[in-house]
Amino acid sequence: MTGRAPGPDPVQDSPRITPPRHHAVGVHAVTNAMRMAQRQMGVVRGARALLRVNQPDGFDCPGCAWPEEDKIHKAEFCENGAKAVAEEATRRRVTPEFFARHAVADLLGRSGYWLGQQGRLTRPMLLEEGATHYAPVGWERAFEIIGEEFAALGSPDEAVFYTSGRTPNEPAFALQLFARRLGTNNLPDCANMCHESTGSALVETLGVGKGSVSLEDIHHADLVIVAGQNPGTNHPRMMAALEQTKDNGGRIISVNPLPEAGLERFKNPQRPRGVVGSGTKLADLFLQIRAGGDLALFRALNLLLLEAEDAAPGTVLDRAFIEEHTLGFEAWEKDARTTAWDDVLTATGLPRERIERAARMVLESKSVIVCWALGLTQHKHSVPTLREVVDFLLLRGNVGRPGAGVCPVRGHSNVQGDRTMGIFERMPEAFHAALDEEFRFTSPRRHGYDSVNAIKAMRDGKVGIFVGMGGNFVAAAPDTPVTEDAVRRCALTVQISTKLNRSHLVTGTRALILPTLGRSDEDRTAAGPQFVTVEDSMGLVHASRGRLKGEPELRSETSIVCAMARAALGPGDDVPWEEFGVDLDRLRERIARVVPGFEDFNARVREPGGFALPHAPRDTRTFPTHTGKANFTVNDMVVPHIPEGRLLLQTLRSHDQYNTTVYGLDDRYRGVHDGRRVVLVSPADIEGLGLAEGAYTDLVSEWPDGRVRRAAHFKVVAYPTARGCAAAYMPEATVLVPLDHTSDISNTPAYKSVVIRFEPDSGPDAVVVI
Fold first, then answer.
1. Nearest residue to 493 (alpha-carbon basis) of 501, 503, 502, 478
2. Which of the four, 78, 122, 518, 571, has the lowest number of CB atoms within 10 Å?
């Protein structure tokens, strides 16, 4: 069945602006979700799909990684989860006839929104060298081409395997096994571009690069600090957990350059007060911080805790915990006491009394959780910032006990699981040793390419094959023209995908599109009905069973990866790829013997709710760091310097998108409608810079070496953001971020700290379509 896709690409540079909202969700969110579901899936198919989302016998939402509550509702999904399901389960189809009508050059001129709205891919497609159009190709011929191109490589390190965080555990494990059997650790993933700073900081300080809290901890915390995060758009189900915090007497501090509606007031559609009442006020204190000022904020909070301990010795710090479980406190304390308030106030833009009020709330709380997302992870100094957050929690023993701990909130639904399965260019030796023992080979130990270094390697002609499993690599990556030129230097690009996006159009000399089953699709093989597994943001692993009938030509991601591996490695490779491709239980048996915490995987994941992975800091207050203790770290103060006449830009998502997938052209909580090319600027900065509200301007980013990047034709929108800061949507604004502008240590693109100036509008004809 083919649904009707939109016709002409809608104009996106003439948005209508209304006042921002001060609450999130409510009845309007429900009706908006139902409207999109009906438009994409139809009434019957839509109801069948949505009633299976996040249910014990259904499929995991392909959106965010927030865990399910113990009490499952029949409608266990949020507005953006419904949009994600509708996009995947759409009745619209992209057929070979579509590609015959549209040359690649034509499709390159279309927006990402228009491309995604065309529907699900249905057949393998091949773009031959010199061809102007994709043409259909049989599965077997597609794998033959892959085998030929891998055979032509001069080295295994000339192949790169990129993974999206939507990829379930089983195909992720198969992909990393394929890469390492080939002989490379070139396994970049989307985590390199979002939460890599989290992993870097937490592994060093606590020994585990994951969050240490459960939903019960969130519910019963005395204080939850939500920093650099917008739950109302990016993790809407988190607001129900925060509402439980408030119901149980806990308090919430919101730290963000922009006021976010979901942290102001939550109208829960599953409660009467959320439907006909005023909802729940979530944030007790809003700290409207300047972008990049979080390190200074936590240094200030830590100084105030030390001074409170000085005033009342033995009543503030958890000396017993510090003595028994940590190292480095003395050196850290000496540095912390040098914190200068002038630097703090400049970096944060906050009045001192607001920071002191936050400190009083901390002192009044026995248990504290800090939650964060990309607002903390995508700065040059993100790793020191997150290490300082850990210092803050260690001071009062807020790790490894109920209602307290670190809570990095991941994006895509299995981005954490993919890392657990080995999608990482620098897996620890223990993983390699277990993999070698199970599969009787020696996996490569030299580090591979992360996402940024993979682009550099492609740019420098060191990569012949790029394989992308899900995602939209060229749109998600920084420095758009550089990234696209780099990808075009490959001999072959292979995209394993459900929907059409720009990465299918920026190709190597030859290109393959291999259409795959989605999370909602039923997967039946010769071994019977199959299911996959995912790991949520709190380390819970559970099954996901697709129920919808898909196109007959589609194959599962695991089946595709295994067939690629056989084609590339040849008939002599003794891994039973064919068996893994049809029977995921056999693959899970092998995972259970390689990955810690997955013992008896097949049985445990069939239990209702699945199982929790071990987490030493949380479970036993032990810390598997290089010192064997939790580590205090000294982190130099950073005061972002913004030259006169410039602003510090952060990229962000609209409410109608998830990462690079654009569901629609509205950001209704921020009051932006029917368009995306906007720059949000405080009214004071608009006046001070001589801009005009509603006028169009070019955004130009500046770099020490004199290089500039330009994003043309953005509408200036007056918005209550922090002074000195601005915001624009990704991927439209990622062109402003150079490839080398990355976080220290983690190498994550610093999308949240881009110095820009404003220049006269170049007009819509100068817009780079992404």
1. 503
2. 571
